Amino acid sequence: MQRRPERIAIAVAVAIGIVGLALVLNSGSESEPAESVVSPDRVEVEEAGPVLADVPETGPIAREPLVPERSAQAQARADPPRSPLPTALAPLRVIVRDPWEEPVRAGTVIARLSGTAQEPVGQAGITDGLAELRLPLGVAHRIEALPKTFGALELAPASLDPVFSEWGEVTLRVTATSCRIAGRVVAAESGEPLPSAHVSLQTPEFSSSIAGMLPEGKFDLHVAAGPVTLAASAAGRAPETRSFHLSPGEWIRDVEVPLALIVHVSFEGRVVSEEGIPLEGAEVALAFLGPHKLGRSTAEFVSRLGEKRTDGTGRFRFDSVPIGKSALDVRKEGFEPTGGVVFWVQGEGEEIEVRVIRAGRLRVRGLASNGAHVTIEKVVLERNGVEVLRAERNSVRRKIRRFSFQGTVTREGEWGLRPERPVVDDSGYLVIEGVPPGQYQVTASAEGREGAAEIVIVAGESVDSEIRLAESRE
Asked: What is the tens place of the pLDDT at every residue in 202-251?
């Protein structure tokens, strides 16, 4: 009985140890755990005082080992950060097509991480519709195609997201802001292609052309969206036009433009004075402008048919004149020039009579303050405050042209067939032919100096004028 208190004390000590260990485990204490845990069976305790109740003996206690928490630095050393991209790369072929399913000739393809605007992780040039990249495996990318602009061909960028290099190949289709017209030019009578034809496209802001096309007479042109005029012509054939209104990206194909052979006829006429007297030796120039009203395109189809001089009866003749619109220019010393008179030749046997008005000649020279002669650079003739004629070194511009025109042809306006230029003679005079008779206020200028004089022009006569020049007020 004397050993009973000792056993009770030991049991109490064991129980206290178990309770303490449970509190430590449940509280998550940050204190350092003991290096070793002693079995309760080997705990030695001093004698205890009287015990009021029996404590039953217990068996071995199961416990989880205590693991200390690691610092952030230790965690980083134990688990180093992983690279955001795998190091394994795979090839990716990027095929770039235009809206018409043809390869984009040139440009750039870039790759970014999917859903981001970060710096590119890959880049390659486009050659004949193909770009090749090498990109990390298992990573989503955004692929962008940036096509290059060629002339009127304007293509917009395109993108695809997500793309994985495991796919091996992707296709991007870009959109176009420009348009396209394709077709061929053929002979109207046979339908055979005309490989030597000329084709042009015109818009309010742009024009392009092809001369000497493919063997099949084909053309394929890009042009800005909006109203477009296509004009086709070939030697010995009447030009034709087609009008379209195109939307961005639209492609009009298989346009066929037939050109008819031009019918040639002979054309005759005569030049007379205002009194009806035939004028021998008058210079007559003729040009073919085209069989249609082509507006701004008229100049593209001009064919100069040569110059003739009138005979003793004032007559002239041109052979092989195309049916259609032509321009005639008549000049004769001592008469006002007609400029380009536009009219229509409709068939064989057409005739024209041009009646020109007698005029005078003006020779003007400048005088410096020291009396030295100065060659005039510009002369302006005014009558009652209205400009009639302006002459400069390389051109003469007339505000009024006087002549009459009659015959079987139909007149239609004027066209500048031949430029008119003044002449500087050996004495330093600026010579202007064909000045209408009358009284004029003449203003002359040269080398920053200016002067004025009153002159009278008489038909059939030459007037010499020396104008004293002073420093210009401007």
From this structure: 887 766 656 556 678 888 888 888 899 888 888 778 778 889 998 888 88
Non-local CB neighbours of 331 within 8 Å, separated by 6+ positions: 282, 283, 337, 338, 434
Domain boundary among 222, 240, 259: 259
Q: Are 323 and 345 in contact (CB under 8 A)?
A: yes
Closest of 332, 326, 275, 319 to residue 303, by C-alpha? 326
How far is CA 348 from each of CA 285, 305, 330, 377, rounded to the nearest angstrom? 19, 17, 22, 47
Question: 363: which strand partners?
Answer: 431, 464
Q: What are phi and psi of 297, to 5 degrees?
A: -80, -5
> How many helices and strands, by DSSP H and E, does the chain display?
2, 36
283 and 366 together in one domain: no
Beta-bridge partners for 135: 90
What's the CA gap between 323 and 265, in Å, rounded?
A: 7
Is the same domain home to 156 and 191?
no
Q: Is the pLDDT of residue 55 over 70?
A: no
pLDDT digits (tens, 9 = 90+) for 130-170: 999 999 999 999 999 999 887 677 888 999 999 999 999 99
Judge contact between 422 and 431, C-beta under 8 A.
Answer: yes
DSSP letters spanning 136-164:
ETT--EEEEEEEPPBTTB-EE-EEEEEE-
